[in-house]
Every structure is written in structure tokens, then in C-alpha cells.
């Protein structure tokens, strides 16, 4: 950070970008004015200092009077063996200074005195005596100097905070203020505000809000913040509005964050009457016990001039007795003896946990951002030591080696086991750097037989330096994995780390082979995307290896431990999909800056990436035209027209042509399109129901007229012209002043809106428009004749541009910001600065070093448990933390769900292992003879190898072939040489013909719960039955084939019924045993299979060979709510085609509003339970519903199903529910 006389502080956004998205500019500026003193430079002190220096305070002073000892090397990562005997601060200072050139580091080697600490804004004490804590902390309290005291003893940690008598918190949670569009405001004493029903409001009682853009009741615009009371999912009250003008329309309500004052007690006072922040709600009594225990340790040291010896029973008894004297109730806990026996322990992951939390408290003290700890925080991880382990003084005796601090806790034998571990780390970013540091410090893979691998494809960028602490400015441009590995090898020269630069995925399974995975003891993820995590998780399940999974988002973080045979896997649950922006909102009706930024990204991708990719393929790929002509609908014409424009019509000869092109693009986007939109829908346009068209979420736009003197207009043209020139490989560039002068001279023909131009106002209309028409063969040939062949264009260069948000010189973000803000100006949407635009358009994940360090510390604590061979699930901890609140939540990992077939239990970790090659017939016989299972379907990947309904000649041919040959024949690919085993998925019946296994290849949730063989379980009591179809399997042909209907009904629906019955039986059994974990776990199975049964039971009735059309009240309702039957069909079809993955599209009835509505539900989520809508008609878009007939062309299936829609059934469902509503 630099001093700037006009703006106070100028923040280096290229360095601090990810942290800025966590803290914000104001908090960072306040931090940049803070002087921090950190006392104690052992492992805990240096961890705090590292995070604070990375965070960017004004200056840091480190204080320590001691010299480096063997015990320091267990966790002090800036000390080396050659530093033993040197003053710690002398060694640490230059290494800390490398982390951030903006933060000067000073040293102080004397004892702390009150006069010295008075010069600081924040004082941090580590490894200090209670006398020093009391003296310094109480003095600071009188001077309003913030104090943080932190300490660790083995697997125990402590933090104390005192931020003075009146500390201001400006933002207690760091969340973005909520805002919603207003539908109505009552003129009443309550002042009830109703929000648009496109999303539920998430305000809380006591929040404060203000308003903008309200028409009618204008007194609320920019009003003083008003306190609210929530009344419902869409309503809240703001107090008396009875004297205000009547509400007309519009308005945006926005949450206002208010500052709050917190009063802290002094150290001495708080020591006697403590307030605790709970770290683990399963250990609710633990803080009070450890509060007494830590005080007892201080008393022991006062009397003995040393800490209790490792595993010294006599010393531990003395500490326990001292604790009883301090607190007769809480001091009697056995946990205090554990604390005493580990008191000399010094563990790197514990320093990471306590040090990162303490560092975040320092940042809170400096900035007033987030809620501080009030006032004591205790944490322990005693579960890391197996319950049945008996350690002696001899086991834990110091060996004068770098691991003495760890041996004091776990013993020498455990250290040897750690050293010989073989672990694989995927990712060397922020989490990866912290992970490698911890691995090196604890001695993982540092023994003669130990090995560790880290892989990461990325290179180091400047924005990484703020939180990926192993990297330095001189490393920018180098590979992350090699740089990180080298840095950790310097921390511990015996660290056997092997860096690699490979992506881990199907394409590198020849590198990460069976031998590689089978040799591992475990895998740790340090990834930032879900797809890669799921892939690694599935590999770990396949090879039955433990996986340590973690992630961060700003101040939030989570840890998950996956244990073979014990827990569910990472893929067993998943986050809800991101909410998408409707197409029409993006194209014509944006109402938020997020919409305009997404539109800008789409513009960038379409103009500078996708279009040139097509042109480039035309130039280089001889089969491009052949493939293009096979595309459906109007895509061939659109693609070839794009190629023609780029290679012929709009090909620039010089840079001036690029300026002209950019100027025309401005005119088209911000003037002409808006004119046409307003021509179709004037400002006073009303709908068929006589309501204003431009109301609710629709904002009436206005055109923008180019002005070269307007910096934002010019920004757009400059960026677009330069990107255009880059596309064509032009090396020449023009400066801004030249572009401005040239653009001023450009005169364009004024656009006149035309009649007959259709503009879609809903996504269904847009989908219908896209489906209309097809390519005219003559027109296509004419287009092709107008594009020169590749030989004629020899030498022409054109390249696609990949969006890169972090290079401020490449014009990418310049284009995005200008493109988005100009569109926002069109629609009177508040614009966004470059910083916010980069966050949204670049989909940046906010990050801060403290959260990363904490999460990795928690991961390593779980690693200790895995290495020690623990298997009991209650000893492990999944964790979720939010340092802003602060909140710490831990829970046992969820056990892997168990199911049964015959008398055998089965989990996702089970599979059938069949050794040796055999024919398909031999395999089928093997399952019947050995397992009593009749295989009805067999697949490998996406290839169906065998099924009971397969044509007889095809079946006979395959039965005699080797399985490997069947795979080659069906998949039409070779089996890679590195593949030693084929994973086959089966569906089969038992000897009585009852289905025992369900093959649902595309069923992701089911797959995650049940794994490779897709085992389902039969119910002990059949509560639900498979309904008969009201027609034959072939009755719906040609629209839905008999094969599909038979498979869909007799196999898939039957599987849902069987699994539902079994789940209910298992739940009842678990309830009778008081097994709450199993009850909770099986809810997922219940929801999935119950939803499948409910949905399909409706689906069969919704279909009929007689088809029909809607009539009566239903027809009138469709016309009222959709305009026409065709529009309703188009809307549902568009919704069905757009479902990501698997799921359903529904026509539903909203009883509360007496309206028809459409909705999509993922997987087998039932409509009514998910949305409250009554299901009338559903379209199943799971692949098993159409793939055998329509392959992957879902739109054709969706269009065809309307031919067999049973409108009598749909109408009966509608009428019966309306009658129920009338009776109520």
C-alpha cells in the first residue's frame, strides 16, 4: 500500500485483489494505518505474524528474547537447523519481510515494558507468562490498545481478546447487503412491504433498510434506515407509512448495515468472570474446564520453573490439584491431566488453527470488520490420540530432533509411521501451500520409505502472493508445484516431495495408474472446482483410499474426512446448482448489475472467442464444413454467416478498420437495439391485462448516443478495437487520443426501427424462436460459395481470445467493465467499478490467508487420526467455520449408508471383484452360480453391453465373446494399455426374480449413495407397490417406444419402489435402536426413491395413446396464465430442455394464487414438496426416459411427448384440486 495525499490510502489491487473481496477497501485502509506488535516468535507467533504481514497492516514489530532450539523446529517454519542458537527474531525478520514489501518488519529483543507497547494499535502476546499477560493486557485496556493473547499446549489452544472499553464493529458478518425489488407498499401503520415473488426475502427482524426508485411513495427514497419486522417469505413491515403518499409502482429495498459498539472487560476482570465462544458444541463444558487448566499450568510453571514433563503422571496430578483450587467444579475434569501431559507439545497444525484465528482477530482489531471473539476461546483436538493408546514418559521423551514438540504428544513410534507415509496432494494453490508446509513440519513422508507427490498445472501470478505464502515476487511465472515443493524442502530437507504439473483426470490415468493409487496411504485435495473434486473422490472410492477434502470462501471454510468402509464420500452430497439468469432478462430486460456483467461476458465469449474459433476451424480443419452442415435447425446458416463476416465482410486491413468496427458495435448494442425495443414496447405500453409492461422486474431503457469525449464510451471503443486487432494478429496499436479523434469523425447512418421484428419477452418465446426454421440447402450453398477456400486465404491469421481477468494490460476487463456499465446506463442500473466487475464477471472466489491456514490446520488434525489407524467415526470431525462471526461447527462424518441383499451388507465401498478374463456368458453364469444373481443388464461406462430386451441375434453374438472384446465392439474404442480392470455396472434379480440391483448409469445421486454395482435393497414389508400401466408398453409408439416403456416402468420405477420400501424399513429399524445418524442419512435415500415413486406414478397417468387437447376450465386457465396452449407448451418444453443433468419439468397449480405455473425440479425431487405447486403434468428428462430412442437429442423427445399427453387426466387433477380449494 502507498500513501496518497488525496485519497488517504491507495491499495495495490493486483496484490490484494482476493483479500479485498473479503475485507473491502475501507477495512483495508484502516488496517494500513495500524501498527502491530507480536511478542514471541516460536511457531504460534510466526504463524500470526505471517498472516498479518500477508494481510497488509502498516507495520509489524516482532519481539522475542530467546534463541532457536530444537523444540522450535516442530512448528516454526522460518527456522532451519543451521539457525539453532541464533536469536529467533534475527532469523525470522528477513523471511517475514519477503512476504510483503509494503509491510516493514522491526525487531525488539528486550522484555516488554508498558512504555514500549503504548506506541502500538494492537498487541499480540504468545508463549507469555500469566504475569506478563496481566501486566501488559491491563495496561493496554486503560489506553484502548487492542490486545490478543494466544497460546497452545500440544493439542490444546487458547485465545483471549480485549479491544477496549468501546470498540466499534462496522460490519459484523461481511455479507453483501441484501436487496429486493418491491411489488407493493401499504399506506398503513404497519407499513407492510411486499417484494416480488421471484425470490424469498432473507431479512431478519431488527435489520435496517432503505429504498430507492419508489414511485408514488417517494418519501421512502433514500430515507433514513428503517427497522423492519419480518411477516412472511415476501413481506415485512417498516412502521407507519399512513401519512406518506400512495405507492404507485417500482422500488428497490436495500439492507443497511449499522455500526455497533462492544465493551470488553480487562484481562484481570475477564479471567475471573469469563465469556466463552464455543469451538465445539459437543464439548460444551470444555471451555470452563480448560480455562481452569491453563491457569493451573501457569501456576505450575511459577512453582517449578518449567512445564509439566511429557506423560509425567506426577506433574499431571499436581496440575489437576491446582486446577481444583482455581475452580472446584470445572477444575476436576480429567481433560486437565491430558492438558498437563501435552503441555510441552508444539504442533504445527495447532499453531495453524490458533494462529490463524488470532491473526483474524488482529485484523478485526485494526479494521472494525467482523465480530471479534468476546472474550475467551478454547479449542482442543484430543481425539487425535487413539483412545486405546497408552503412552509413557519414555515414548515421549525429547530426542533433540526437529520433531521433539510432536513426539511429546504422540510418541516416537508415531513419528516413524508419519515419516513413511505415501500421500498425494492435488493442487498447490493457497490450501496446497499451507498443506505442504504442514506436511514438511510434521515430518510426513520424511522417512526413508516416505513419499509425497503434489501436482498443479498452474503458474504463479502476482495476485497469488497475498495468500499463497510459499511464493515470492521473483517466482511469478514459475510453476506452482515445483516452487512450493522447493520452498518446503528448505523448511525440512528430508521432505521427500515430488512436484508434478499434470491435470488429474481421465486423460492422465496412464500416469496416475492402478499401481500409483494402490501404493498410496491417502489423498488430500487442495482444489477450487467441484468437477475435479468429484473425480478425485471417485478414484479414492475405487481404490479405497482415505481422502481429506477442504475448501474456503472468504472467511468461511469446511473440512471433510472420507474414510474407506466407514464414511460416505465427498460425492454423496452436493451443493444446489447456481441460480441461472433467464435468457430474456439477459437479452432485453436486465434489472441488476449482475445481469449486465453476465451479458458483457457473453458478448466477450461470443465475439472474441466463439466466433474466431469457428473461423479458425474453417481455415485449419478440412471437415469443419461437413460437421457444420449436419447441425440442427438454423445453426449451419448462423455458423457459416459468422465465418463469412470474419473472413470476408468485416475482415480488417488496418487498425482503423478495427476502430470503425468497434464504433459500429457500440451503435448496435446501445443505440439501435434499444430503439427497436422501445419501438416494440413503448414506455407507456400495457399488457393484455392492462398492466404496465415496464413494471416489476422490467426496467424501461433509453438509448445512448456515442460521445467520444465520454470516457466510458471511449473505453468501450478502445478495448473493443484492440481486442479485434489481437484477433487478427495485428501488432500495431493506436493510442487513446488517436482512437478518440478517429471515432469522432465516424458518421453512421441513423437507425430507424422496423415493424415486424419479434422480440421475445419470456424464455419460452425465446426458445420457440430458436427452434423455428431450418437451414435452406440453396442458401447454405450460396453462403459457402461466398467464403474463399482455405488456399485462397493462405496466410490469414485469426485466433480466439481466452478471457483472462487478472492481466490489467490485455483490455479484457476494460471491455467487460465498459460493456456492462454502458448497458447498465441504458437501463438506469447503478454501475459497478472495475473491482466489483472483476469479482462478478471473473467469478472470483474471495480468499484470505487466515481462513486457508485454519482450514489446513484442521485437515492435518484429521490426518493425524488417519495415520494412527483410527476407524471409529466418532473420533473424526467434519468442520465448518466462519471467522467473521466467529462460528465454529464440528460434527461426526456421516457413515456410509448400508443396504442388504440376501444376508449381506453393502455400502459404496463394496464391489464384486472378478478375477481373470471370461466371456459374457461365463460372467452371467458366474453371478448366478456364485452370488445367486441373474444379471438383466450390464454396462461399462456409457456402453450397454447386455440387456434382457436385447435383440436375440445380437445377444447370442455377444454371449460368446470375451468381455474385453464386447467393450471394444460396443464402445468402438480401444482399451488403454494401462487399464488393468474394467468397471462393470449391473442390474440383476435374485433367484426368486425379485430385483436386487438397479442399473441407473445416469443417476448421479443414486450412484453416489450406492456406487459401482448399484446395489438396491428389498423391503422386509412391502408398503408401496409398482402401479400397473393403464395401457400396453407399445401403446405410445411411435412417440415412446415399447423398449423404453418396459425398461422405464419395470426396471427404473420398480427400483424406486423397492428402495423406498427398504428405506422406510431401515428407518423404522434405526429408530427402534435410537440410531439417529442412520435415520438422518437415510433421508436422502427416502427423498430420492420416494420422489421417484411419486413422480412416475403421476407420469404414467399423464400419458395416453389417445392424447387429446385441454378443454373447459383448464383451457381457460392456460389462456389466462400463458396466452395460449401453444405458448404454454413452448414454455414447458423450453424448461424441460434446459434442465441441467437429470430432472423433471412440470405444469403445476398454485392453490394460494389460483394460477397455473411451471417449474423444474432436479433429480427426483417431488414438485409439491419442493415448491408447493400441485403437479398436473410432468415431463421426465432423465436419460432413461428417452435415450434408447432419441439418444442425446432431448428436444425431439420433449416435442414428441405432447402427442401422448393425457389431457383428461391433467384436467381432472386441476379440477379436483380447485374443488378442494373451494370447499376449504
Side-by-side strand order of the widest sheet:
5-4-3-6-7-8-19-18
Let me know the number of strands.
36
User: Under CATH, the topology of the domain at 583-842 is which?
Assistant: Arc Repressor Mutant, subunit A
Q: Estimate the strand proportion.
A: 5-15%
Shape: globular
Please summarize the sheet with the most strands: 8 strands, mixed
- Report how far the terminal alpha carbons are from each other: 67 Å
Mean pLDDT reading: 90
Number of helices: 41
- CATH architecture name of the domain at 583-842: Orthogonal Bundle
Low-pLDDT stretches are 1-8, 996-1022, 1219-1224
Question: Quick one: CATH superfamily of the domain at 583-842?
Answer: Ubiquitin-activating enzyme E1, SCCH domain
CATH class of the domain at 583-842: Mainly Alpha
Helix content: 40-55%
Task: Quickly give the structural class.
Answer: alpha+beta
Roughly how many Å is the radius of gyration? Answer: 34 Å
Organism: Dimorphilus gyrociliatus
Catalytic activity: ATP + ubiquitin + [E1 ubiquitin-activating enzyme]-L-cysteine = AMP + diphosphate + S-ubiquitinyl-[E1 ubiquitin-activating enzyme]-L-cysteine; 2 superoxide + 2 H(+) = H2O2 + O2
GO molecular function, one term: ubiquitin activating enzyme activity
Family: Belongs to the iron/manganese superoxide dismutase family. Belongs to the ubiquitin-activating E1 family.
